[in-house]
Amino acid sequence: xxxxxxxxxxxxxxxxxxxxxxxxxxxxxxxxxxxxxxxxxxxxxxxxxxxxxxxxxxxxxxxxxxxxxxxxxxxxxxxxxxxxxxxxxxxxxxxxxxxxxxxxxxxxxxxxxxxxxxxxxxxxxxxxxxxxxxxxxx
Length: 138
Hints:
two-stranded antiparallel sheet; 43% helix
């Protein structure tokens, strides 16, 4: 899952009552937001648990405050979670997963090279990959 970037428009947030802020925080099924006890402002406490469910944004629409919070996926950063049952350590699971991912990427790369070879060499590409060749003798 992509890592979320969460922006709160502080000027718009000032227009909400404490009750509205509480309702907004509670609208999130995951505890991404909370109210700072000192400033009474809505703050992002754990962006990594955001599940892109849209509930907070729907709540803001219903409150007539679209744009108060903006959430965008960072497409150059993602959250990768590894959980273990205990049979294998999480660190070993991660290393195994990386090895499998490398193998799959190699397969994709080879597949891409094969397509390029087919485009470049036509029928010859199939023969070099073990395809059947029919030669006519004259």
